[in-house]
Amino acid sequence: MEKTLQAKALTKVYNKNKKALDGVDVVFRPGCIYGLIGRNGAGKTTLLSCLTAQANPTQGEITYGGEKVWENAAVLGEICFAREMSPILFMGPNTYKVKDYLRAARMYYPHWDEAYAKRLVEQFGLEPKKRINALSKGMLSMLTIVLAMASMAPITILDEPVAGLDVVAREQFYKLLLEDYENTQRTFIVSTHILEEAATIFEEVVLLDKGKILEQGNTEELVSQFHYVSGKKEDVEQAVEGMKVLSQETMGKTKGVVVRCGAEQLEILQQNTTVDISPMNLQKVFIALTTSNCKEA
Amino acid sequence: MQGMLNEQTSIYLQIAQLMENDILKGVYQEEEQVPSTNELARMFRINPATAAKGVNLLVDEDILYKKRGIGMFVATGAVERIRQKRKGAFYENFVKTLVSEAKSLAIGNQELLEMIQKAQQE
After folding, report:
1. Which domain holds residue B30?
2. Distance (Å) from the C-alpha of residue B66 to the closest C-alpha of chain A?
3. Do B95 and B66 belong together in one domain?
4. In the predicted model, what is the mean pLDDT of chain A?
């Protein structure tokens, strides 16, 4: 059970020149809830597909407990990648039924918990006989969540699980996730770009931007390094001199900047009473990091 | 446990503070059991590791203690320890802000004292 999922120097190139992933190194240790965060097109789904051998990396290696993941059935049963189901398949509308998917999952995942699946299907009000192409977007998301949870896989990956859900269902999902984690202590990797409500759930975050890892680590420790400094333009500029400024905005005679600094620098900053210093949340940190990454590029 | 989490302070600090509030108000008496890390995580919808960090902070300050296999309990003398600790913070966070705000509103000493007395009587 105590195995890590690891990607080393992972690169994935589509159509010869489009680099979806560019030298990604990442480690997922057991018993931790990870948030995989990135803008649309950042490479989140590609990374998850490579991790679960649904896409073949152009370069680099993926291992689980030291064993290669690619074409390794024993290992792949331990990893569940629940991605949103498509109501349309290549040969036409997806006319499989909810119960067909549940049956397939039961055969595929060695740790599958049938009673748990039944309970969730009922809780979410999913109709087993309904066809996939007749499900609403919310229901499709629910089914994906049921498959992920009941898989009981030591590594459970959910790609944008809440994208199609309304606020009430999202709340239900996070509650379910925490309850499950409390009981199973398995590793969850949850990709999302909806950060406001998810930030407190993730013990660790991996920020992906343009196919590269921007940051990874403990959510709290990461966020606490960022501060918003505002006040009179000259005062702010003086206060943050020599610090790493990620973004700035000026309004009339006032200015606000986002800085990244350690505890010592923060203390010095706080002694400066001419400026106002406020903490930031994950969403603001993410925006500051990706926009400053844009400028540098 | 009551209250909502805000974004102004770290979550784990807020968990510790909410727990302290409840101990001060007598919701949890000394030697009484407090909610577990998992219960806190579920209630506030936060990662259990974050909740544990907040709880451990109070363990380090002898406000809570762990009974192996049972759970977390309020230590004897916890109320007094919280009061002492918060008095320092009261000056830093409230009195200083109060005085500086009064200054920017040009409220004189006498007027400020009268306001405080009035508030005390309400």
Report:
1. 11-76
2. 19
3. no
4. 90
